[in-house]
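Narrative of activities, Objective 1.

The group set out to show that a structural description can be obtained from nothing but a protein's sequence at a throughput compatible with the screening campaign. Below is one input-output pair from the validation batch, recorded exactly as produced.
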Amino acid sequence: MNSVGLPGGRSLDLSGAPLIMAIINCNDDSFFAGSRVRGEAAADRALRFLDEGAHIIDFGAESSRPGADYIPAEEEIRRLAPVIASFRKRSDAPVSVDTRKAETGKAVLDAGADIINDISALEDDPSLAALCAKQQAAVVLMHKKGTPRTMQAAPRYDNLVVEVREYLAGAAEKALAAGISGDRVILDPGIGFGKSPHDNCVLIAHLEEIRRSDYPVLVGLSRKSFIGALTGRSVEERLWGTLAAGAAALFYGAGILRVHDVRETADLIAVWKAIAGSKTEGGEYAMG
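Output recorded for this entry:
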């Protein structure tokens, strides 16, 4: 699929280089402190990220880190709606909102959001799917095992790749049945959501299995704990590991990278695209 439909007849073009989704957390407890920002400063940061190369801004107000608590929709809306409205006055760039609640979804879509990024794949609030269909919003459907509070308590799979692939295929079918058009569906294997460090590596190396459904694949691995487990680095020191994992995700088929570090990821994609585009069919090459 070369594009993703958005409200108002707009679309995301996926026919060229992979896209960057920039993370902005309007809360006080997301695992990476550098991503937390509130109010007008959040809109300002979003504009800066666009200048650095972001294609989509992903605002969130409820942390989904391991052990995080659920917050009421009223608080989510209080944190998000004014920021999105402020951003919308200054930019028409695509806006995604990380939420699993229909009440929040309506408020942010009314404020100008285009994409609902739901870690529950529209399961936690059944009315969210119908809302997205009515508003012609795109959706990100993510796989997770358990809830943010419990998901990292010894997760286990009989066949990780098959389970994730089949879950996401089923989630997409449910979205279609609710009236969401197929060109508005994005899949996310849920790196770090109920997976061991080894599980995360396996999923990245098998993204082509997720892509078999022909929906675009979004990967969010920025500064996550599996990178710390592999490198021994703190959250603040995981940029280089994140870039390595991001390059692998691109190689295996990711179409969108959800990241904290936009400028560095833009450089990664520029170099990756140049190298990937230099390989000709049949393996022939020219010297000099």
